[in-house]
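Escalation from tier 1.

The customer reports that the assembly of four entities below gives different structure tokens on two consecutive runs. Tier 1 could not reproduce it. I'm attaching the input and our single run for tier 2 to review.
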Amino acid sequence: MAVTSTAEQGRTFIDEGDPADHFFNITSGTARLFKSLPDGRRQITGFAGRGHFLGLAVSNSYAFSAEAIEPVQYCRFSRAKLRMMLDDFPALEKRLLDVASNELVAAQEQMLLLGRKTARERVASFLLARRLESAACVSPAVHVHLPMTRSDIADYLGLTIETVSRTLTGLKADKLIGIPHPSEIIILNHQGLTAQAGGH
Amino acid sequence: MAVTSTAEQGRTFIDEGDPADHFFNITSGTARLFKSLPDGRRQITGFAGRGHFLGLAVSNSYAFSAEAIEPVQYCRFSRAKLRMMLDDFPALEKRLLDVASNELVAAQEQMLLLGRKTARERVASFLLARRLESAACVSPAVHVHLPMTRSDIADYLGLTIETVSRTLTGLKADKLIGIPHPSEIIILNHQGLTAQAGGH
DNA sequence: CGATGAATTGAAACTTGTCAACGGCAGTGG
DNA sequence: CCACTGCCGTTGACAAGTTTCAATTCATCG
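Tier 1 run:
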């Protein structure tokens, strides 16, 4: 029924369009969630970490793919099992509704970013969101870790690798951030970076 | 507790950022749902018609605004009342979870559109989606009604009014659609239009 | 019929994408 | 141990799609 599995880095463990037989709960690691166009263009709709639920789709096929960017451990249920659990534990249903509502709010925020923000605003927003995620405190934890590649960031922000790279370089030139390592960003001027994020 | 109200055209009946005290169920009309940036840029995250639920937010403030583009009738509940109803009718919770899941899938599709599709692909996708919505049948119901302005379409597709207009003109020039009236589109070549929508 | 706002069209500017070259780091194998 | 190889990231020059600004036409309504 409920099976615990591991997906090594790079492994696609959910395929867009496949029959949505299962429901996933990530217990460790990070995955990218994405949709693809026939010609290969890709839009990453989010990054899923510990505690995330995947496969809520009502339809009978997955609406997106999921791929491990760090080794991912997850717990997998059949849909039948999920239905049984929902019947047995009404609280779980409430929890899932909360989760879905939150994701919906996040999705709307991302639509605003993709539809109306400039490249600089997108990257600044991304860094600030990442910071919130890594350090849930309000500390001067100016250190942001990026487990994903520039390609992932680009596909998440609706930009190209080059624009992401140039924009990060530009933010560094303006002394808003530091880049000790491609996957490590230091926020030097939080207020200034917020001002570049286009409000909100 | 549950109050039925009407919002005349142009009326904003949900304000982004306001305390999320109520939950809405639209019984007739159409509303635009949108988020705004401080400088006035706007992203429409969706259009809500008959049967739509609004205000699912978990947080204590609305994540978006809602404004009537046609006179909108809705049923309004206090959050407390909603909670009571959810306790009394578990089926309602299932229903809301289904609704939220579907909206999430739609939101992800929209992210793909906003992040990775060209103007022409966006407009073609929009027309096809509208057609599905207006005529739920597979008939040659090539007639699509657009109750929203070009400005709304632009803010929904992450484009400008001018680009939307030019793109529609272009599709007409290619004999894929007809435009008897700005708010009435006729799909002349469904297959061809689908090909322009960028797959999916 | 005139007035007002929406929609269309045109020309120029700008942001971002594309193509290409280069540099750096890691893993591999001689 | 060190060259080799491949991938990732950065940088540059140029092209392209979309936006901006402006003018014109078209619908709606009093």
